[in-house]
């Protein structure tokens, strides 16, 4: 293909002209027609970061486009890996597979990013009522739940945590952990910038062009574009048809002289010690006001929650933050290819469980991308095409 054509009667040229079929010309034309990247990843939240890291580990060439985490819910997330959730105290979806994978992933990732952010902590579950305490006792007798539930303390014994409201008793949840969002996200950003794969800019859909053999974004050509754009997906022209039910969440960082243990504390809201005399508490749920503006209503709600957990009223609010979670109507992520444009994909919709689920599903999604398996049917966006896609 790169050979100089044989000079003959039909290939002679006028003196002073150059052939279009030179070796360098063919190489230039060939390189312009071929993608120079494997994929473009839109969004560097925890989903996009974990997927990008997985693909880089597999030797893939990529570009991440993100406007410095504008509206990123991961910065105000709890970052908790919790196997038992909800008022009915049920096992979290995929906790048996995804949670052990995530714990190993983050523990190893600290060395790669050169930063400490992973904390292998138990959850100290403070019961809100005698009925909840009894439900925990029933769960403890269930072989399916027993491995996740540690020591339990009856209502009468409150000597261990005198600063906490434990009048209905408490339990420990095992196999849990905390990933510190404020530490891991800047570390990921530095990692991607050092490797020259992160472009800090707002993604512009007008610059994205789709072709039969690739996608292009400005002068970038890639095999695929993968959207990990969080709650911004509701305005994404390719994936806004998917059934999202986004929810705004707010958190407080508070100073207090209360003695708070190192555990993840949960009593309707989560509370975690982040430094001596400081802790974070969250989070609220608001499905109506989907913006990143902190509110007085959420501030009052979280201060009341802190007072219900800690036996003190001496709180000083240091910081208040808000973000919008990419929750879905089915509580399952939206993974897979666009029904009309197969080179456009979604890796999104992890809601409040992004830190817990995305390491496992990043590997799962990478396998799918390169032909090593099918997507989990509960997460495959194909299940929504018939009902929602127009």
Polypeptide structure, described:
The chain contains eight helices and 21 strands. The relative contact order is 0.17. Strands 1, 2, 11, 12, 13, 14, 20 and 21 form an eight-stranded mixed β-sheet that branches. Residues 1-20 and 26-31 have low confidence and may be disordered. 26% of the residues lie in helices and 25% in strands. It is α+β, with helices and mostly antiparallel strands.
Kindly summarize this structure in a few lines:
This protein is an alpha+beta fold and 390 residues long. 26% of the residues lie in helices and 25% in strands.
Q: SSE layout and pairings?
A:
Elements (H helix, E strand, L loop, with lengths): L22 H11 L3 E6 L3 H12 L4 E5 L13 E2 L2 E2 L4 E2 L3 H19 L4 E2 L3 E4 L3 H12 L7 E5 L16 E4 L3 E3 L1 H14 L3 E3 L7 E3 L4 E3 L2 E8 L19 E9 L8 E4 L1 E7 L2 E5 L13 H14 L6 E10 L8 E4 L6 E5 L5 H16 L15 H4 L2
């Amino acid at each position: 293909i790169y050979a100089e054509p044989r000079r003959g009667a039909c290939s002679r040229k006028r003196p002073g002209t150059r052939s279009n079929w030179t070796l360098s010309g063919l190489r230039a034309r060939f390189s312009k027609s071929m993608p120079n990247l494997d994929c473009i990843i839109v969004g560097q939240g925890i989903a996009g970061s974990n997927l990008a890291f997985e693909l880089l580990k597999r030797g893939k060439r990529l570009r991440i486009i993100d406007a410095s985490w504008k509206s990123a819910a991961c910065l105000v997330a709890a970052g908790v890996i919790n196997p038992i959730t909800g008022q009915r105290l049920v096992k979290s979806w995929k906790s048996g597979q995804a949670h052990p994978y995530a714990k190993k992933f983050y523990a190893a990732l600290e060395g790669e990013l050169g930063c400490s952010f992973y904390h292998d902590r138990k959850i100290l579950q403070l019961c809100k009522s005698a009925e909840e305490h009894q439900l925990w006792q029933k769960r403890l007798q269930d072989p399916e739940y027993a491995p996740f539930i540690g020591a339990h303390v009856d209502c009468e014994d409150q000597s261990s945590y005198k600063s906490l409201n434990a009048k209905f008793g408490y339990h420990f949840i095992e196999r849990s952990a905390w990933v510190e969002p404020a530490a891991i996200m800047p570390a990921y950003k530095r990692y991607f910038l050092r490797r020259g794969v992160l472009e800090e800019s707002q993604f512009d859909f007008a610059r994205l062009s789709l072709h039969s053999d690739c996608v292009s974004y400005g002068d970038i050509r890639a095999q695929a574009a993968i959207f990990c754009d969080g709650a911004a997906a509701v305005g994404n022209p390719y994936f806004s048809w998917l059934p999202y039910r986004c929810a705004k969440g707010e958190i407080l960082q508070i100073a207090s002289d209360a003695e708070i243990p190192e555990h993840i504390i949960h009593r309707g809201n989560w509370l975690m010690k982040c430094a001596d005399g400081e802790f974070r508490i969250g989070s609220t749920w608001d499905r109506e006001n989907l913006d990143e503006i902190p509110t007085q209503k959420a501030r009052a709600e979280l201060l009341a929650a802190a007072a219900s957990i800690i036996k003190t009223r001496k709180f000083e609010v240091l910081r208040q933050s808000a973000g919008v979670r990419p929750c879905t109507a089915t509580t399952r992520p939206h993974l897979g290819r666009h029904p009309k444009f197969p080179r456009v994909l979604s890796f999104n919709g992890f809601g409040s469980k992004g830190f817990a689920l995305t390491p496992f599903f990043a590997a799962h999604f990478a396998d799918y991308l390169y032909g090593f398996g099918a997507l989990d049917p509960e997460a495959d966006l194909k299940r929504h095409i018939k009902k929602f896609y127009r």
